[in-house]
Amino acid sequence: MVTSVQPAGHGPATGGDGLDPAALADAQSLPGRPFEADCDFLSPNRNLAPVTTRLDGEDRLMVGGCRLSDLARIYGTPLYVLDEASLRAACRAYRQALETVYPGPSLALYASKANSSLAITALVASEGLGLDAVSAGELLTALQGGMPAERIVLHGNNKSREELELAVTRGITVVVDNWHDLELLAQVAPGVGRPVRLMLRFTPGIECHTHEYIRTGHLDSKFGFDPDQLESVLRHLADCPWALLDGLHAHIGSQIFELEPHRDLAGVMADALALARSLGHPCRDLNVGGGLGIRYIATDDPPSIQDWVRTVATAVAEACTTRGLELPRLLCEPGRSLVAPAGVTLYAIGSRKAIPDLRTYISVDGGMSDNPRPITYQSQYTALLADRPLAPAEEAVTVAGKHCESGDVLLRDVSLPAAHAGEVLAVFATGAYNASMSSNYNRIPRPAAVLVHDGIADLVQRREQPEDLLRFDVLPVRLGPVQ
Fold this sequence. Notes:
This protein is an alpha/beta fold. It is built from twelve helices and 22 strands.
């Protein structure tokens, strides 16, 4: 099977390793013409498209030096395309901002629930980041992808005994979410022969303006201990010889454009840190979670990675200093803002249905099985025809998926040129929570994924085939086919 191709007509996208954000800013290092005139190479979350998105000589879209319509032809559709330069630029933005602004040690952890794969793990590990996982599957992907165990943390509000055993035997930090975690750890941890490194998660009681399903910092949340439980939990852990409580964790939500809630969070966490240390816990880590938003549509205006880090780091440093606390290692957990802007999903346009004076539907060969976010969160996206991105809009259409579900709609009332069957539609900012939340609804196979860089496309996820969906079915003999 071919796993790496160089689409015809394209040379290397950049000189040297081509992945330094400053080098990306030099238009001469990229083929074609700029797609976004105001592209922010230092903070990819502020762009509509990956940082390497360009127009070739015929005004067709290219990402990572690869023409998108070529990728669709070679690998088929739907197809997840991930731009390596965008992902590396975001990783470096977090790492360098933390090193520059925060006066103590720091570590950014990739929230792998956003998009978990061996390739992404290897890439973020090579950039010096850590990783947070929420299942045995994500843990195994992280370990086999080359992420050092000491840079991995395990989250989850209902961890299984098997997941905890995997974590503690590999030396992975466990984020304690509830009393059930502690009961299972009390059974598992003593057999390891050394204290298990723990982080304690609590709800800080901070609201922010985001979708109600992704608010995790307010009190009515399934995640973390309530604030009024903190002291009792900390006292309990002080009597557990198998436990080393080395950190605290809190998270206030996702797709956040506000900075003030993060300033508020710093004070709440510093108070908790003072309490934990007063009870004898080292608590050398303070994990403020993630949540920075990205630009999905033109009207979105998220803060830059640098501004987010500056706000968080300054607030934590000031809160600890005013309380006379030695600065902890500052951890954060970006997910969406790292990987979403690097992603593009390609679809082939198929049928059309015009309802006079009401709506025109155009359908694509994917939908809610490869992107459940619109039907789940009413999420919005930006989309263009891959080979006619500059063509003037001629109609407002609703882009529907192929699934047997009326709500299977990817984009509502989006302005596009009159699209024809067989054309490739490119949907931007799909690197997070698309592949990771995908399904086999209607027994439709999941798409392939490619990583693009320097004009090369590497296959990083094979396309499922219909017969793959039968691998785990078991047909009882008594129900076997009639002979």
